[in-house]
Fold this protein.
Amino acid sequence: MKNVVLIALFLFPSLLIFAQNNTDTSTDRTEVIAVVDALFDAMRRADAEATAELFLPQATLKSVFKDEKGLQQSESGKIEDFIAVIGKEEAGKLDERLWSYEVNMHEDLATVWTEYTFYYDQKMNHCGVNAFTLHRTDTGWKILDITDTRIRQGCRTEVRNTERAVNDLMNAWHRAAATADADTFFGSMTADGIYIGTDQTELWTRDEMAKWAQQYFDRDSAWDFKTIERNVYKNADGNTAWFDEKLDTWMGVCRASGVVERTGEEWKIAHYHLSVTIDNDLIKGFLELTQKK
């Protein structure tokens, strides 16, 4: 084992530096996404100089795709050729639209997975995913590699509306409880989803809640909560959102908050916390009531 380590350090002396400086630092994910966005902004402007500044000198480009016969193919391209093509086009002709960002980071390495649709001269040409690898340097994050896939059918042509998707999910979820539709209600939660109810004992996983709630879903209506208002927020990569909502319930006005996650085209509830509302001037009476138990 010792000899293996010595050989590795001989071949890759930078590993010794990494071992000495492998401290856990936090990096703003938005900086990485900004580099990806900057690439396609420069492409739209046909700005070859700005494009070149985003890449490391040793950066690589690759594509994997199926040819006209349906056979798997792969090809590599040179960064300098890619930059030259951008510089020769008219501004506005190259337009790659990104639909999502999935970012993973460790130390000075980041990967970004993006869904895209490419337009040439305002006409949809192809779509797929980009897999970026970026390296943090003394002058900021730089692109080390891009590998993409390319297809021409089933391409997206519009931006997902996260707020609409989350509202649709939550409205359908509350409606499922009102109509005792257990399949929709529990199917709208992730397998490891958490539900926190108003009672101090009510902290369940999805499956624990399903077992507890079976008696209510055996009726015509489990419970009927009507949404008064809801605010939706999302993170930078578009795959996670959170919300707060006010509800009209049999307990009076309640408030709730939750976290939802997107996998592919589907949003699911990962965490939901329901709470009753009490005016501050009634807290003393509330405490007296609960302390009598």
The domain at 162-281 is CATH 3.10.450.50 (Nuclear Transport Factor 2; Chain: A,).
